[in-house]
Amino acid sequence: MAIYYIDGKFVPAEKAVIPVDDLAILRGIGVFDLLRTYDGRPYFLDAHIDRLETSAQKIGLTLPWSHADIVRVVEQTLAKNDIPEANIRIVVTGGSSTDFMTPSGNPRLLVLVSPVPRLPDHWYTKGVKIISWEVERPIPGAKSIDYISASLALKKAAAEGAIEALYIDRNGLALECTTSNIFAFVGDRLVTPGRGILSGVTRKVVLELAQGLFAIDLRDISRTELLAADEVFITGTSKGLVPVVQVDDGVIADGRPGQRTRQLMAEMKRHTEKR
């Protein structure tokens, strides 16, 4: 049984509760961040907490904890659990509110840990399918707990044999997936959207690893251009780097993971093994 940190206390997962008047329950107000461990150590913990703090600021939540406070709670929670490799979810709720609508300055901090699930090997060797989903998140730079659109999109994706859904805006531009960022090799350049997205920590790592290997463009990319790309892949905390070989009914190039994608996958593997 996992041990969670819930609003100042460490409790067994089965006894983890928050009050029903918390805005996370009543209004879906709250932010979170997700990271994982490698060899038992949190991967880019500081960067994830930085993003958590930015997300809170963007939706109007004031955090009473310092960056160091959150680091300490995460480390303590990990220490109380015997999990070789863990996913770590850091959640800040809107807190209880007198008007049941607006934050009153008393958010709650939750830290939940769980084993990192083993993803299918064929995702990485043969590639995956994703679908497109026409939606625009209201505050793209905030990792909000409101995942209704993502939940609906992933349900549709699963029904169509896909593992992810790619958000497409009103102008037909590809933005990001529900829990991943999108990349494409277009000609001799590595392209990824640079605006209207939640900038992923794994995305940043990939961009750093790609420096010196490929020319990089941070720019808009349309769904049409994506379908005509030479290679496509997605990145995310729990997935790492996953080749995409099909978007909706369109097959990418020859329908197999591309050479440059595989090169970046190898670079990612070496990078995580060093940490």
Tally of DSSP β-strands: 16
- H-E order: EEHEEHHEEHEHEEEEHEEHEEEH
Structural class: alpha+beta
Strand content: 25-35%
- Sheet bearing the most strands, described? 10 strands, mixed
Q: What portion of residues is helical? A: 25-40%
- Mean pLDDT, all residues: 96
The termini sit apart by 28 Å
Task: Tell me the overall shape.
Answer: globular
Helix tally equals: 8
What do you see in this structure?
Strand 3 (30-38) and strand 4 form a beta hairpin. With 275 residues, this protein is an alpha+beta fold. Helices cover 29% and strands 31% of the residues. The strands form two sheets. Strands 7, 8, 9, 10, 11, 12, 13, 14, 15 and 16 form a ten-stranded mixed β-sheet that branches. It has helices spanning 23-26, 45-58, 67-79, 121-125, 148-159, 201-210, 223-227, 259-274; strands at 3-6, 9-12, 30-38, 41-42, 86-93, 108-115, 128-134, 164-168, 173-177, 181-186, 189-192, 215-218, 221-222, 231-236, 240-247, 250-251.
